[in-house]
């Protein structure tokens, strides 16, 4: 497989997962500081206080990226570094960090892909209702403009939100993520306000001259158990309906409003039964439908479902109480996530048909395994085979006509994996959290060769 000539190869991270330095240079508190410091929320009581200490080591980390030949680096800006209380004038020392990072990247010939929101909401905004409060959408658009104002002369590629489904439904639905609220109605409202924030921010960015604007979603192909290993398997009517509904709740809930200016019926029905639709105001869908250029896709595993008595209703899935989430017949990663590489090509081909007006980019794909350092090396053969398998499917999707612009591996570094803390390692670079030493895993060396050859 040879990739297209200008195919963008890179890696991704997120602010709270790598930066540390949570009290430095005027940074305000985020919902993840609060959440991780409350006992019982994160495995082993881990927090992002130090993380990979990237805030102090970004120069070395950019040097590693250069060594790997990355063309792109996707990072996120911590909103509470820029506006410690989520509103008002910018904190110049917070902006200065990203300014230095961007310059360092450009100096290394690496294009910055900047994500404005990767889940670290200023705690002050959560105290006023967080994403369940409509005002947060307006605050977000203002923040986007502030960041663009400082970095827009050098950053071309902008993403508004990372994975609004996760932010809304794990943050406000089942409470597994910050802010840890457990209320399906708040989750539905939050999803809408995240979308509104996206649309308002996209319009501000466009107005300010941003070259490329993207919305990043966690999408998965939704399959019945039989379809996991058999593309030809035809589900019965009840299973097919379950598949369609879960696809609507997971993916179309975000991409239909953003790209077609309307909600799927399944989403309106779920909202209707969970607090109502009164938070969707006239004009919102037009605002959400602001023009964008790319969909960013974070793919890890398929979503496997069938009709039938569900698990005890999971507040992360309002609207799917009569649907069963089933295991896939496939090997799993250390997260317990099934490894189904062709799920990626199935997904990309479908999204390129459903949303033909925008390009696609894989903004995250990767796996956690229990890596060990031996004689200064990490022989992560499982990760190499995971990445190879998925890149093959990226190639297939391109051959099938998907307008796929690039691929970013999750993650550059081992990091703070949210509720799992540091015990799950997703990096192609190993981090020793005691010494902050970095070691290129075999997967990093392999990826470097793929990038250099632009082929598998
Ligand atoms: C995604 C997140 C990312 C990382 C990976 C494993 O949902 O966007 O921050 O945690 O999962």
From TrEMBL:
- Enzyme class label: hydrolase
Signal sequence range: none
Pfam families with a match to the protein in the record = Glyco_hydro_1 (PF00232)
For molecular function, the Gene Ontology terms on record are:
beta-glucosidase activity
Superkingdom to which the source organism belongs = Bacteria
Its Enzyme Commission number(s) read: 3.2.1.21
Q: Which InterPro entries match?
A: GH_1_N_CS, Glyco_hydro_1, Glyco_hydro_1_beta-glucosidase
Name of protein: Beta-glucosidase
User: What organism does this protein naturally occur in?
Assistant: Nonomuraea harbinensis
Native organism taxonomy? Bacteria, Bacillati, Actinomycetota, Actinomycetes, Streptosporangiales
